[in-house]
Write a structure and sequence with these properties.
CATH architecture: Beta Barrel
Distance between the termini: 50 Å
Largest sheet: 8 strands, antiparallel, barrel
Number of strands: 8
Number of domains: 1
Shape: globular
Length: 173
């Protein structure tokens, strides 16, 4: 009987000590800020079958190669936009939900949000309708695990976009 009590007491002490060790673990993390400018040159596009391109719920899927300013290939962007115009009389504006995934050597950066587009004239080169379309960075993989920040996309010319990524990533000290 005393042996059983001693075993139970020893087991209880082990649980308390190991729990205290886990609870006392301390991580020191700092935040690194980085600005990445990627140029998307061209894209392969595909529409959702069965939904008219200008109808609510219309989806456009795309992928495009990414380059740094020195013309070095940096990765690929995959994206999807869904038309969210809920009001039949919303005039000349389109509201789209956008998801972008930047696949880079160091990992993926995922961004999402709503953008508004003016449809007349339909996205002329360098029009204000295409400027400052900000998305929230919702996370990432690899180097970008726990990342947050913003992605701003600017249309430079037909089929070419500049994505400026302001990203904050945790760095363990």
């Amino acid at each position: 009987m005393i042996l059983k009590i001693l075993h139970a007491f020893t087991l209880l002490c082990m649980v308390i000590v190991s729990g205290a060790a886990i609870a006392s673990e301390e991580l020191r993390i700092s935040i690194a800020k980085e600005t990445i400018v990627l140029e998307q040159r061209g894209a392969t596009l595909n529409h959702h079958p069965g939904i008219e391109p200008k109808a609510t719920g219309a989806a456009l899927y795309f992928e495009g190669e990414l380059f740094l300013k020195n013309d070095q290939q940096a990765g690929i962007v995959y994206g999807a936009t869904t038309l969210w115009d809920a009001s039949p009389d919303d005039g000349e504006e389109e509201v789209r939900h956008r998801n972008l995934v930047f696949l880079l050597d160091e990992g993926q950066i995922i961004a999402s949000g709503i953008s508004s587009y003016i449809s007349h004239p339909k996205w002329p080169a360098n029009s204000e309708a295409w400027k400052h379309l900000g998305l929230a960075i919702t996370g990432g993989t690899g180097k970008y695990v726990g990342a947050y920040g913003t992605v701003t996309s600017n249309k430079l010319k037909a089929g070419v976009f500049a994505h400026t990524i302001e990203i904050f990533t945790p760095v363990q000290d």
